[in-house]
Design goal:
Distance between the termini: 66 Å
Helix content: 25-40%
Order of helices and strands: HHEHHEHEHEEHEHHEEEEEHEE
InterPro entries: EgtD, EgtD_Methyltrsf_superfamily, MeTrfase_dom, MeTrfase_EgtD-like, SAM-dependent_MTases_sf
Bound molecules: N,N,N-trimethyl-histidine
Oligomer: single chain
Shape: globular
Structural class: alpha/beta
Keywords: Methyltransferase, Transferase
Pfam family, one: Methyltransf_33
Protein name: Dimethylhistidine N-methyltransferase
Length: 318
């Protein structure tokens, strides 16, 4: 007979994840960071979200990059090193690469080394002349570019409206940091989701098939599996609302009843209707985003939208 340890998961638990969860669930408005959505299951759910009829950002951004590829290529210096901050699927990058034959290096920066290695391998197979130089780093913290980038001119690539996940002040700090990493005279190609009517925004984050709900709930599953939590997944539900004053979509997990959740040795009480705020996705106008970028020293070179003005691609210079 084997003796089962009380919290087998706790042995391998990521102490930073645990500390973040403890701190977030101890606040009066409980929070969990959206960066914890993306374990393997979460990344697959996000891929499924990008294909949903209601989720317009991904296909719209790819459409803009496809259409404007030649213009983007014309703006970038020859033999540029392209630094992608946080590399997701390579679909958007591939759009650009079709138009950028003279790239000197592609530098994807991501916290997941395994993901980067797999991605680098497929890219090298498809683009044998491209120098792929992955950097394992958290792009919200300072890091150095690989030596091989040398004196090549640099451009940053930050698609997907990931910038919308940050509070505006944090986003400005991040854009400033990108400027420091890239160095003087650099360009930044950035995808930014736009303000639009509330029903359309809310549907994009609360789809009929329930994929976004599953994506949100996956956070609780992760806490149960990795931190030994006992969230009752039937006793929480997904909610997405547009907060017009703050110009952001908010995702929450709503407690369906008064209950208490144990994680490791701690207990966290929930009232019926109380929420965990799991994500903010800020929506900008063309002007409000240009103004934000300006506070970080980036000037707008040009900006494009799709015909319905759902999404924007900005080219900034600093
Ligand atoms: C990856 C942050 C751009 O805010 O639209 C999609 C994440 N969350 N559906 C977004 C997300 C719910 C997405 N970003």
């Amino acid at each position: 007979m084997t003796v089962k340890p009380t919290f087998p998961e706790a042995v391998t638990a990521d102490p930073i994840f645990l500390a973040d969860v403890r701190a977030g669930l101890s606040k009066s408005q409980k929070t969990l960071s959206p960066k914890y959505f993306y374990d393997e299951a979460g990344s697959e759910l996000f891929e499924a979200i990008t294909a949903l009829p209601e989720y317009y950002p991904t296909r719209t951004e790819i459409g803009i990059l496809d259409e404007r590829g030649p213009e983007i290529a014309a703006l970038l210096p020859k033999a540029v090193a392209l630094v992608e901050f946080g590399s997701g699927s390579t679909a958007k990058l591939r759009c650009l690469l079709r138009h950028l034959p003279e790239l000197s290096a592609y530098v994807p920066v991501d916290v997941s080394g395994d993901f980067l290695a797999a991605q680098a391998q497929t890219l090298r197979a498809d683009f044998p002349n491209l120098a792929v130089e992955p950097v394992v780093a958290d792009f919200t913290r300072p890091f150095a570019l690989p030596d091989t980038v040398g004196m090549a001119p640099r451009a940053g690539f930050f698609p997907g409206s990931t910038v919308g996940n940050f509070e505006p002040a944090e986003a400005a700090t991040l854009l400033d940091r990108f400027g420091e990493i890239l160095g003087p005279d650099s360009l930044l190609v950035l995808g930014v989701d736009l303000v639009k009517d509330t029903p359309r925004l809310e549907a994009a984050y609360d789809d009929a098939a329930g994929v976004t709900a599953a994506f949100n709930m996956n956070l609780l599953k992760r806490i149960n599996h990795e931190l030994g939590g006992d969230f009752d997944l039937e006793a929480f539900r997904h909610r997405a609302v547009f907060n017009a004053d703050a110009s952001r979509i908010e995702m929450h997990l709503v407690s369906c009843k008064d209950q208490s959740v144990r994680i490791g040795g701690d207990s966290f009480p929930f009232r019926e209707g109380e929420t965990i705020h799991t994500e903010s996705s800020y929506k900008y106008t063309l002007d409000s985003f240009r103004a934000l970028a300006a506070t970080a020293g980036w000037r707008s070179e040009t900006v494009w939208t799709d015909a319905d003005a759902l999404f924007s691609v900005h080219i900034l210079r600093r």
